[in-house]
Amino acid sequence: MTDPRRTAPNEAIATEEALAVLVEASLVLWGCPGEVRRSASGAISVRTSEHQAEIARAEPGVPFRWSITIDRRRRHAGSIPGLLRALRLALDESFQPSRARIAALEVGG
Amino acid sequence: MIPVTVLTGFLGSGKTTLLARLLKSPEFARTAVIINEFGEVGIDHDLLEAGEESFVQLETGCLCCASRGDVEATIAQFLARRERGAVPPFERIVIETSGLADPAPILNAVMREAARGTGIELCNVVTTVDCVTGLDALAREPQSVRQVAVADRLVLTKADIGGVPPALRAHLAAINPGTPATEAQFGDVDVARLFNAARDPAASFEISSRDAARRVHAHHNDIQCIVIRREQPVPALLITLLLEALADHCGAELLRLKGLLYIKERPEHPAVIHGVQHVFHAPKWLDRWPSGDRSTRLVLIGRGLSAPWIECVMAALETELVEIAATNRSRPVAIEN
């Protein structure tokens, strides 16, 4: 049986690598010193002096792409920007995410 | 749509002189002007002679420091009075900011008002720079840098006194690369070219290869200009997600974003985007590419921006979208018998 949610493995690994680099760069941008590591399963763990987070693929059947567990509390994100928002909300008390949502670019001719 | 032009520039850089010329020009006869002066007693409006079909309203205090609602309320009042016939049927609005004003919140307010469907659109940001004192102002006054950073067009005033110092040109190009600069000799400048609503929307994207190569310009007061270039077309979704990340994490510090986009789904038509802080204009699709350079060029100007972080966001989004496309290709296809 083919799992319709399966991802092409090489591309999936590339995404996780790029995401780990982005999370590391984000900690620097946010002024939150911390450590970012990747596990063999591809999950990304983030450890700061006060918090611990794990980013992984959302489990099958969940209508989101990513799951993020911060201090044992799990939530989901549909996109990388959503993931970053959830992570920063937990790590940076001064963070105020934008209340505006960006509409999809209309490409219809 | 009623075009709104924001005229900004540091104290004494010639904004009111430029506005006076505009109002004397017959083709700009139907102009509503909002003048913002710092302090409680303004005189700038007395220095202007408006024709019968134009009118000038003075706002004292500082528009950028007052609640943004003030700008929106003034524009809404203008439109309501126009509708009632209480003022001449103006065809454009010009907002002259105080020389001390940060223009970004004002642009933000205009764009929000436009997004509410009130029938206005932000057409142009014109910034005056004094050729004599401009370098000094840029070195000392952070607002002066912000005024240059948001410009669609620069007017180099008092060029008749000693020309335009090359160092000033270089500094302006470093803050806001590719923005057209017009010299004003004895206050004389082609106002139609400056304020015309039908400006070339792609005009400010002629970024030189040198600018693109340097990509990041740091300034003493933390204002940076970052240029992102992509030769290959990018998926439309990537732009949406990138803007979302920028709005969240750069927000108020993002003074200006402008971009000419090479979109995968519509490669023959470049899209132009503009943004101020966390407010982005709906993109405009152009009929054709303005030159042979078919590449995505994004210019971001702001404080404390990080070029490596923006590149990391782009890279993560690009790889994720490649993965999604590969996943979709490898999905089993149902075959009907």
Secondary-structure blueprint:
The complex is a heterodimer of chains A (109) and B (337).
Chain A: H1 9-30, E1 34-38, E2 44-48, E3 52-57, E4 66-70, E5 73-77, H2 80-91
Antiparallel strand pairs in A: 1-2, 2-3, 3-4, 4-5
Chain B: E1 2-9, H1 15-24, E2 31-37, E3 55-60, H2 68-84, E4 92-96, H3 103-115, E5 120-130, H4 134-140, H5 142-149, E6 153-157, H6 159-162, H7 166-175, E7 181-183, H8 191-195, H9 209-214, E8 216-218, E9 223-230, H10 236-249, E10 254-261, E11 271-276, E12 279-280, E13 284-285, E14 296-303, H11 307-330
Parallel strand pairs in B: 1-4, 1-5, 2-3, 2-4, 5-6, 6-7
Antiparallel strand pairs in B: 8-9, 9-14, 10-11, 10-14, 11-12, 11-13
Radius of gyration of chain A over alpha carbons?
15 Å
The SSE string of chain A, one letter per element, is HEEEEEH
Largest interface by Cβ-Cβ < 8 Å: A-B, 39 and 41 residues
What is the overall shape of chain A? globular
Computed structural class of chain A: alpha+beta
Overall mean pLDDT score of chain A?
88
Beta percentage of chain A is 15-25%
CATH superfamily of the largest domain in chain B: P-loop containing nucleotide triphosphate hydrolases
CATH class of the largest domain in chain B: Alpha Beta
How are the strands of the largest sheet of chain B arranged? 3-2-4-1-5-6-7
Query: Unreliable stretches of chain B, pLDDT < 50, 5 or more residues?
Result: 39-43
Report the principal-axis shape of chain B: globular
Low-confidence stretches of chain A: 1-5
Can you list the strand order of the major beta sheet of chain A?
1-2-3-4-5
SS content category of chain B: alpha/beta
